[in-house]
User: What shape does this take?
Amino acid sequence: MIVLASQSASRAAILRGAGVVFETAPSGVDEAAEKQRLVADGADPRGVAERLAELKALTVSAARPAALVIGADQTLELDGVLYDKAASLGDARARLSALRGQRHVLHAAVSVARGGEAVWRVLESPAMAMRAFSDAFLDGYLERNRVAVLGSVGCYQLEGEGAQLFEAIEGDYFAILGLPLLPLLGFLRRQGALAA
Assistant: This one.
């Protein structure tokens, strides 16, 4: 049995699209409070993603010990600074203005737990080069994507119109979407959870 410790529609769609049969179970982790604690303890954006992914997996694994529980998290780093999801369209505009013409990194972490213990983990960090788009493009983009921009830490969805914000990306497409899929599928096959 495979369990995704997340309510993320994007991560669930990635797994479903790959033909993985799974259940979902929200972790109940207070991500904002945990992130704040980790940053106060000196964790960098990469470490925050790794720790939150593991915490989600472990929390659900405690209640579902026989399952392979997948926890995932993604953080955005620009010049060493950790960014959270925008709380409003005004915040999204400020975020995209800060990212415009810059290169940022997404840290996509996955941890799998079984029996209340972490048994596997991976982290991929794709680099994203955003183009120097105009204010008019930005305003139109925000108007057309009002809901989507608030659901992503970078205020974009690469699988949609957000692709137009970029001039180059380096790294795995699935990691950009928030779930490093290919290494995860390899692990699940080695565990006998997927057909080899």
In short: The chain has one domain: 2-190. Helices lie at 9-17, 31-40, 45-63, 89-99, 135-144, 146-150, 173-177, 181-190. The chain has a mean pLDDT of 95.
